[in-house]
């Protein structure tokens, strides 16, 4: 004859064991019994609803023999965080059961308990600090009926309160303020007034003061209550990313101790056994953190908070940064989380959550027959992220990657994009080479690489020529500055409209009779003579094939144009190399807008330009040539317009 199993309502059992919050505690224990290990063996099958001792119905009943087990679960409740979380893929595992049964876990458990004790002590100190500040603050601000915080110093008022600790002890206002928020949020939770946002906010506050493990617990609780709490998921992804980086560094350090030979196959010493155990545990940690990172990064990107208003195209209108949402204080951008995902995602991760990841990709990228580009201006990706993105896109669509590679290859043949730094390095990468050869062709890749190698060589010649020009300009630049400063300090340029309002003699007040002015003219003439000697090498600059090939293009060599204009004007002013310089002046003044923006015009005082043109009219034998007159007129007009544009900035 089988023994009849006696049943008792779980709530009654917990109450009989002497626990005050028995109803809430019973609910927690019920979840463990139902979801973990094989604890459901303690559940009794009842046809009818059981009536609890307090008269309320109870559907969840356990065997009377489970009393010790239920009591142990209640006792363990405050210490769950000490035992850590269940391993990935073992969510039905009750971690305290595994750890308490194994003697080898005693050392780690001891360390966790010590750390938990120290943590509680720190928290107690913070709470005591906040508690101490309340009467201190009250004593200071309740003395006067009215306080104007714009004019009255709270610091002085607090210092005036007798028997208080010094104000210098109040410097840590940020963490104390957050701790006050933590206490308030915990109060809401204890009073059953919390929702998923409460746990998320609590997790954020703990995260901001560096209590990372406690923050994880609260974020997990928030997600349990709302699986679409993107703020909690995104912040967890950030936490797990930082933990994963540290674990990978630890693993690298452990491998380095064995010359990167991996496990020691036949360990002898205790140190070798320790090394093997450490590598095993760290690899397990890396694997688990990777899974947690990918899971929360994907969910965080999908459930990222959105603006209250919707765009016209109907797409999700994500806020750029978590703290743009009224529900978060975390400064963390959606783009940053996407890049973290790019760095860590594997083909296995992609296949497991293909639909979700494709949705994320399409929220960032515009994709068409020409490849892809970012929708929101995230073009500041570094080369590493660029490659990671291409790798991810190869999983998304082979056709898209082929179109992208063709687009990048075609771009090098025009607009001088061939000279962008890193282009050759990009196409030389094994992954890029593999895809290009496989889907576009070996011959095409060979031709592309030839073009890029030639371009790199051409760029080296351009860089070398630019260096020569820069040195040349640096030699004459101080003298040009002296001449410009001289003309800046003379009577400023006056427009013809202003001159019409006054007598012409008003603007020429016998300056040449001024001995000081005469000495400056003599000095400036000496500068011109010296400059004419120094600038002799300009002919070689404009005859250089690189200048001839790339002038008036986006990669025109800097300084050559301005050196040439200065040199041509200076030589014409002394009737030297007339025909060559006239040809140059005609060419260099053709494009008025370019002339206006040219430094030699925009940075030089109008008086300097006028002085040179006056010297040309005075000394040059072709000064009356129509082309000369027209070019000099364009030069003066460009100089005037450049100054007017400059002055408009201050209107």
From TrEMBL:
In residue terms, where are the TPR repeats? 196-229
Sorted alphabetically, the keyword list is: TPR repeat
Name assigned to this protein: Tetratricopeptide repeat protein
**Which InterPro entries does the entry mention?**
TPR-like_helical_dom_sf, TPR_rpt
Which Gene3D superfamilies does the record associate with it? Tetratricopeptide repeat domain
Q: Which domain of life is it from?
A: Bacteria
PROSITE patterns tied to this protein: TPR
Entry keyword Magnesium: no
């Amino acid at each position: 004859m089988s023994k009849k199993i006696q049943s008792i309502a779980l709530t009654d059992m917990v109450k009989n064991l002497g626990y005050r919050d028995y109803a809430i505690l019973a609910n927690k224990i019920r979840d463990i019994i139902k979801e973990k290990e094989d604890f459901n063996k303690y559940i009794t099958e009842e046809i009818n609803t059981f009536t609890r001792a307090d008269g309320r119905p109870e559907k969840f009943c356990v065997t009377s023999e489970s009393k010790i087990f239920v009591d142990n679960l209640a006792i363990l409740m405050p210490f769950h965080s000490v035992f850590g979380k269940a391993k990935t893929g073992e969510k039905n595992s009750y971690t305290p059961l595994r750890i308490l049964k194994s003697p080898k876990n005693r050392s780690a458990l001891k360390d966790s308990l010590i750390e938990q004790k120290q943590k509680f002590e720190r928290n107690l100190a913070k709470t005591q600090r906040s508690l101490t500040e309340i009467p201190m603050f009250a004593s200071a601000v309740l003395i006067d009926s009215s306080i104007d915080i714009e004019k009255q110093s709270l610091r002085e008022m607090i210092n005036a309160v007798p028997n208080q600790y010094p104000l210098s002890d109040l410097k840590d206002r940020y963490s104390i303020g957050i701790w006050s928020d933590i206490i308030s949020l915990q109060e809401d939770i204890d009073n059953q007034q919390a929702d998923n946002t409460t746990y998320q906010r609590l997790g954020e506050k703990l995260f901001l003061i560096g209590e990372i493990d406690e923050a994880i617990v609260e974020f997990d609780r928030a997600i349990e209550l709302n699986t679409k709490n993107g703020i909690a998921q995104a912040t967890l992804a950030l936490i797990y990313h930082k933990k994963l980086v540290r674990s990978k560094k630890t693993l690298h350090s452990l491998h380095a101790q064995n010359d990167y030979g991996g496990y020691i196959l036949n360990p002898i010493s205790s140190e070798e056994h320790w090394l093997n155990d450490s590598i095993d545990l760290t690899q397990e940690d890396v694997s688990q953190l990777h899974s947690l990172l990918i899971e929360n990064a994907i969910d965080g990107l999908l459930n990222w908070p959105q603006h209250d208003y919707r765009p016209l195209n109907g797409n999700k209108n994500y806020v750029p940064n978590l703290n743009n949402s009224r529900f978060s204080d975390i400064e963390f951008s959606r783009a940053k989380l996407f890049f973290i995902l790019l760095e860590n995602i594997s083909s296995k991760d992609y296949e497991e959550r293909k639909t979700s990841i494709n949705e994320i990709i399409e929220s960032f990228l515009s994709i068409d027959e020409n490849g892809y580009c970012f929708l929101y201006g995230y073009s500041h990706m570094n080369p590493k992220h660029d490659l990671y993105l291409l790798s991810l896109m190869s999983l998304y669509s082979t056709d898209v990657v082929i179109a992208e590679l063709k687009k990048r290859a075609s771009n090098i043949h025009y607009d001088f994009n061939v000279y962008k730094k890193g282009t050759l390095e990009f196409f030389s990468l094994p992954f890029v080479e593999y895809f290009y050869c496989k889907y576009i062709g070996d011959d095409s890749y060979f031709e592309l690489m030839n073009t890029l190698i030639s371009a790199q060589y051409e760029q080296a010649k351009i860089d070398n020529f630019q260096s020569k020009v820069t040195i040349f300009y640096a030699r004459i630049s101080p003298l040009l500055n002296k001449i410009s400063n001289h003309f800046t300090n003379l009577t400023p340029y006056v427009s013809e409209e202003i001159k019409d309002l006054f007598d012409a003699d008003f603007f020429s007040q016998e300056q040449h009779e001024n001995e000081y002015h005469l000495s400056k003219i003599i000095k400036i003439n000496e500068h011109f003579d010296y400059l004419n000697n120094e600038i002799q090498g300009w002919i070689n600059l404009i005859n250089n094939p690189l200048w001839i090939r790339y002038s008036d293009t986006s990669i025109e060599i800097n300084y050559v144009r301005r050196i040439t204009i200065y040199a041509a004007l200076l030589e014409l002013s002394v009737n030297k190399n007339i025909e060559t310089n006239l040809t140059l002046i005609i060419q260099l003044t053709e494009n008025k807008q370019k002339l206006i923006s040219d430094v030699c015009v925009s940075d030089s005082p109008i008086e300097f330009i006028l002085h040179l043109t006056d010297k040309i009219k005075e000394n040059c034998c072709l000064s009356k040539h129509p082309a000369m007159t027209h070019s000099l007129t364009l030069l003066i007009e460009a100089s005037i317009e450049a100054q007017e544009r400059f002055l408009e900035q201050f209107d």
